Amino acid sequence: MLSVHLREAERRKNELKPALEAGAKAVQEAAANLSDELLKVINEDVQEIYMAERQIESELRNIERLLSSNGYQIHQWTTLLDRLTSELKELGDVSNWAAIMEKSADEIRDISKQLSKSA
């Protein structure tokens, strides 16, 4: 009786073996397909990120170039403003000197008139 059950189990095992092998093969193929699809999705995401990174780097280079150019222009404006300030100061000094000279000339004229009246 044991041998009958043993033979029956062996026969059943042999009958199911091709189905098990086919199932295992199907699982392997499904896993391979899933792996391929996941890689495609991940690679697409990585490619999008890479393209975005390149665009950001390009924009950063443009910004750096603009900042450098603006820095140079600011330096030029600062230099021009410093020169203008210096010139205005000198003009103020000349104007002040002229006012002092005019006042001195008026005092000399007044003294000269007084001396001519008393003489």
Automatic annotation (TrEMBL):
GO-annotated biological processes = endosomal transport
| GO (cellular component) term, any one | BLOC-1 complex
Q: Where is the signal peptide?
A: none
Q: Which InterPro entries match?
A: BLOC1S1
Task: Note the coiled coil stretches, chain numbering.
Answer: none
UniProt lists the family membership as follows: Belongs to the BLOC1S1 family.
Protein's name according to its UniProt entry = Biogenesis of lysosome-related organelles complex 1 subunit 1
* Organism of this sequence: Gracilariopsis chorda
What lineage does the source organism belong to? Eukaryota, Rhodophyta, Florideophyceae, Rhodymeniophycidae, Gracilariales
